[in-house]
Amino acid sequence: MTTSAEPRILVTNRPTAEQLEQIYNLLDRCFAVGRAFFQERLDQDRAYDPATTWFAMVDDAIASTVQIFPLSIRVGQAVLKIGAIGSVGTDPNYRGMGLAHRILHAQTAYMNEADYDMSILLASKHAFYEKAGWRLIPETAYVVDKPITTCEQHDDYDIIPFEPRYLDAIRLIYEQYNQHRTYTVVRDETYWQDLMSWPEWKKADCLLLRRGDAIVAYGLIENKDTEQVFINELLYVKDAEDDVIPLFHALCKLRPHAKQIAAMLPEDHRLRAYYTQHQGQTLAIHMAMWKMINLYSTFCKLQPELEHRLHSHDLLAEQELHLALRCEAEHIYLDYKQRQLTVSRTPSLASDASRYVPITVDERSLITYLIFGYDAADATEEGVEHADLLQALFPRQQAVFYLTDKF
Prior knowledge:
By secondary structure, the chain is α+β, with helices and mostly antiparallel strands. The strands form three sheets. Strands 1-2-3-4-5-14-6 form a seven-stranded mixed β-sheet, sandwiched between helices. A hairpin with a 2-residue loop joins strand 9 and strand 10. Helix 1 packs across helix 2. The chain starts with 8 loop residues before the first strand and ends in a 14-residue tail after the last helix. The mean pLDDT is 95.
């Protein structure tokens, strides 16, 4: 009697050109959007590093793949390195072998070594990714019935379609609007140039609002013939706030079959007031899942922002603080003295560790605080106990992630 040998499984990255072709073919078999959707995203990314493409081989066949898309995401004035996980696919003939989980665990180790701070993925199969350590953090979108009538055009502005010659103008608007705005992606010139060749940009229509010779606002609406359509982003310079509604109406007009218009909107966006005035409803979005990759690295990069927050706090600015923060199995120590904050792996007050205020926060809560700010209403028992400190370190953020940056 003979028994079949166990399959040889290898998880690795940096595919050869031939292996990358096989990965595209694998994704083509797994997803209806087709091979070109995945190939364009990498072909048109000048920052693409083959080390971010991971795959599992069973014997000599490429059976599963997961892609990391590196993103620089703001938290106030700080910038964190985020590993965005996407293009997750396993050949139907090899499912049930745990191949994607093997890749995700390998990628976690890789991201830790490569100075990533956190990881995000967008998924509907939450239990699958929870097993690999990612945690669902719900977000809120706002939905309003599409306006029946639209604003009339005025002589002092024009609404025109986007052309590449206006790229610098919308780049400037994006930077001005999102300076120090948490959860937004840092888009440098190369990113912008590449972005216009990526699938998400091509799946939207862009309109500009021009006042005289200046572009003062722009908006993107997803190109879907469905009853509910999302505004991917709608940004404006400060003195163009009152012109946002006509631009919004013009974007809505591009979708004649839509009945509802949805958007992810921070509280300070002009459209939030419009949605409230027109009986807009909230829509829970259960897609974004996060994982802490390196707690120490994250807080080192956050140090200038956290120090600034303490400087700005009426009660704590001049105090001396020593905090021992525990998240899952990791510990870090925050020492604030003479208006300077230090972050360390070990207590600086080793001879008097009792002076540290111990704060234990689970990973989901901590990442929520980092991105959206501390909210006592949703805090754990530990979070409520240290509400004043957590509120000072993690105040409410006008956070937003633009769907244009989807991966």
